[in-house]
Amino acid sequence: MRGALIGAGFFAQFHADGWNRIPGAAISAVADPVAERRVPFAAKWGLPAQYSDAREMIERERPDFVDIVTRPGSHLELTRLAAEQGVHVICQKPMAPCVEDCREMVRVCRDAGVRLVIHENWRWQPWYREIRRLADAGRFGPVYHLGVHMRTGDGRGDQPYPVQPYFREMPHLLIYECLVHFLDTLRYLAGDLESVFCTVGRLNPVIAGEDYAVIQVRFASGARGLIDANRISGDMPPKVAFGELRLEGEQAWLRMSTEGDLWLAACGQAETPHPFDKPTVGYKGDSVRAFQAHALECLTCGRSAESEGEDYLKTVAAVEACYRSAATRREEAVV
User: Fold this and answer.
1) Do the bridges between strand 243-249 and strand 252-256 make them parallel or antiparallel, or are there none, so unpaired?
2) pLDDT recorded at residue 260
3) Which of 151, 193, 283, 285 reaches 20 to 30 Å from 17, CA-CA?
4) How far is 93 from 77, CA to CA, in rounded Å?
5) Average pLDDT of the chain, as a whole number
6) Can you give the pLDDT at residue 241?
7) Tens-digit pLDDT profile for residues 293-320
């Protein structure tokens, strides 16, 4: 299938690298209004064409799909543009600035008869795929607890988030931009979320949004979870998995390190290392490429992707519920 990239910023580099290593995918062009980004990007990744305007690119290139790698505020407009031209959409998270825009993205694609797949690569990190494989094999028995402890250090100081400095101005930051990954991954590992209780704070006064959060999660299955996160007190640069995870079931428990290594233990027994295949190329265990290969296969054969736009609204709802809970100081349903 022929694709085209919209956006040539920091994270688009990982997208281009992934597409270049997937048989059956051909990225023909990139669109970005900033020539200083667009021109060297096209040259670096060997893209035949580059445009300042996304509409012109779509009309001239007629791709099968676009891969949107821009800031969230532009996602609805670009999704509508592609859908009007009959082009499938792969779009980076966060999906859009508000839930109404997210729903509108789903609607315009549905009405146009094109697919909307959200680029959520976190659950495609190999350590999470292995944890899910073990859970599906019954290794843990019924799961009753999932806990995430995330610490990074890129939010410290007078110039935080140097790689993506626009983070400093975002009114919603840690949950909206980062913990959305963990909320989606918890959904992947243990099923839909039923409710959350969330508290937030701002540790670095130079930013607009929150950089500290504690989220208690209740799953529809009855399991419980906890996300404890800040972007102040951890390593810089952050470790590959961005945090630690602990899963506890009636038969066994598992621990995941910040490096994505796994340890297993039957209840009452000492833990032992659990080896598994962990790619060292690409972004975070080559998760971008893994997601892209999955999305391409789904677009080609017609089956639903794991992060199909309509299903991803459940993850959006979890983020919205966290902010409602922080404001009301009550447990909030994920609806």
Assistant:
1) antiparallel
2) 97
3) 151
4) 15
5) 97
6) 96
7) 999 999 999 999 999 999 999 999 999 9
CA 203 to chain centre: 24
The encoded tokens of residue 133 equal 């494989």
Structure tokens at 20: 């270049």
pTM score over 0.90: yes
Q: State how far the Cα of 216 lies from the Cα of 200, in Å rounded to an integer.
A: 12
**Whole-number Å distance between alpha carbons of 86 and 109:** 9
Amino acid at residue number 231: R
Per the omega criterion (within 30 degrees of 0), is the bond before 48 cis? Answer: no
Instruction: Tell me the C-alpha to C-alpha distance, in Å, between residue 92 and each of 18, 120, 133, 165, 191.
Output: 14, 7, 26, 18, 22
Cβ atoms of residues 105 and 74 within 8 Å: no
Residue of 218, 147, 141 whose CA lies nearest to 182: 147
Nearest to 204 by CA among 152, 158, 146, 261: 158
Rg (CA), the chain: 20
pLDDT in tens, 103-158: 999 999 999 999 999 999 999 999 999 999 999 999 999 999 999 999 999 999 99
